[in-house]
Write a structure and sequence with these properties.
Layout lengths: L21 E2 L2 H7 L8 E5 L2 E7 L5 E7 L4 H16 L8 E7 L2 E7 L6 H5 L11 H20 L15 E3 L5 E3 L15 E2 L2 E4 L5 H6 L1 E2 L1 H17 L4 E3 L4 E4 H10 L17 H14 L10 H8 L4 H8 L15 E2 L7 E4 L19
Helix pairs in contact: 4-6, 4-9, 6-8, 7-8
Bound molecules: adenosine-5'-triphosphate and magnesium ion (MG).
Magnesium ion binds next to loops.
Pfam family, one: PK_Tyr_Ser-Thr
Family: Belongs to the protein kinase superfamily.
InterPro entries: Kinase-like_dom_sf, Prot_kinase_dom, Protein_kinase_ATP_BS, Ser-Thr/Tyr_kinase_cat_dom, Ser/Thr_kinase_AS
């Protein structure tokens, strides 16, 4: 696999085109992040920690420092670097560079000043309520466009595999920048699906992917549906009802949607300030995306069209969808509570249903 070369230019090209990314030295990243100081840490994911940093020119960066690895993880790194280096879209977080020195593997991105959607919906920024309805619609459409680009225009096409709120970052204008599609595998053109390792986060995982490890674009559509419901309602993908029962966001929202009670689905933090027609659109699109049957989900291009309200015909078909007439009794998708602390899944065709609403920072890749 050819990687680490895309940022360099041959002599002919020099002066014509600016390289899109560059190699950073470890020394430069140490000094930018104050030696990966704990105070600079933005968070921790399945593959390592992310630190805020500032370069000599004043620009702000986010550095993902991958955990010490095995050869397997080394492959993950090269995959991410190559993919990110190639793909550019207004709603995809692009790579600024990388560093590979000794045992260290680091990826450098632009720092997103408004952090992630997760931080606004459930974490450190949730009390500020800066996500008004307009911003939420813009994030919904923007992230759908980013994923649609991965599925349809990137060469080869890319399945994200880990669409979730912490992977939707927000720039200074609150535009969505979808991140971490670099851990996805590349689908050869023409292939409809690939069977490979299950990788994703519980609550967002399409059932067929969780059970059979069959990844396809429609798995991303499912996760995107969960993300849309989360964005509209401010609720988590899985909520604890009591010590033994957890309820999925779809089990909560579907009966309300069937009864036309869309305003009850809206995030209370919106203070009833939303466009009702758009809210209904977002909720219904979200629910068809998260249909347990993959063949009944729309594709991401249709999702973009629907969210933008461009296709009245397709939307009225959705309104008539049987999903909204009869629905399974509540509790159909209830999952047993589990004491394990990881919500990240990365295992050879094997899924451990793990939930971690309380200790997200402590999760481990398994
Ligand atoms: N460029 C960035 N700007 C600002 N915050 C970022 C940036 N990149 C990542 N983060 C934040 O840093 C934290 C850790 O990110 P990381 O991607 O390692 O974990 P994650 O998204 O929670 O899980 P996963 O490993 O599945 O992607 C997240 O809260 C993420 O939103
Ligand atoms: Mg991430």
């Amino acid at each position: 696999m050819a990687f680490f070369c895309c940022g360099r230019l041959d002599r002919k090209e020099r002066g014509k085109k600016k390289p899109t990314w560059r190699i950073f030295s470890l020394k430069e990243l140490h000094s930018a992040t104050n030696n990966f100081n704990y105070d600079n840490k933005l968070g921790e994911g399945g593959f390592g920690s992310v630190y805020w940093g500032q370069l000599w020119d004043g620009s702000q960066i986010a550095v993902k420092r991958l955990k010490v690895w095995s050869n397997k993880a080394d492959m993950e790194f090269s995959v991410e670097v190559e993919v990110l280096a190639r793909v550019r879209h207004k709603n995809l977080l692009s790579l600024r560079g990388y560093c590979a020195e000794g045992q260290e593997r680091l990826i450098v991105y632009d720092y997103m000043p408004n952090l992630s959607l997760l931080s606004h919906l459930h974490r450190q920024h949730s009390a500020e309520c800066v996500l008004d309805w307009n911003r939420r619609m813009n994030i919904a459409i923007g992230s759908a466009e980013g994923i649609a680009y991965l599925h349809n225009h990137a060469t080869p096409h890319i399945i994200h595999r880990d669409v979730k709120a912490s992977n939707v970052l927000l720039d200074s204008d609150f535009n969505a920048q979808v991140a971490d599609f670099g851990f996805a595998k590349l689908i050869p053109d023409g292939a409809t699906h690939v069977t490979t390792r299950v990788k994703g986060t519980l609550g967002y995982l399409a059932p067929e992917y969780a059970m059979l490890g069959k990844a396809s674009e429609s798995c991303d559509v499912y996760s995107f549906g969960i993300l849309l419901l989360e964005l509209a309602s401010g609720r988590k993908p899985i909520e604890k009802l009591n010590s033994t029962i957890k309820r999925t966001i779809t089990d909560w929202a579907l009966p309300l949607a069937c009864e036309g009670k869309f305003t009850e689905i809206a995030d209370p933090k919106l203070n009833s300030k939303f466009v009702e027609e758009e809210l209904k659109r977002v909720v219904l699109v979200a629910l068809v995306c998260s249909n347990s049957r993959p063949e009944r989900r729309p594709n991401m291009l249709e999702v973009v069209e629907l969210l933008k309200g461009e296709s009245k015909e397709k939307f009225s078909e959705i309104e008539k969808n049987e999903l909204f007439k009869v629905h399974e009794a509540a509790g159909f998708n209830d999952v047993p509570a589990n004491e394990d602390n990881s919500d990240f899944i990365s295992e050879e065709k094997e899924v451990k249903q793990e939930l971690n609403e309380e200790k997200p920072q402590d999760k481990e890749s398994i």
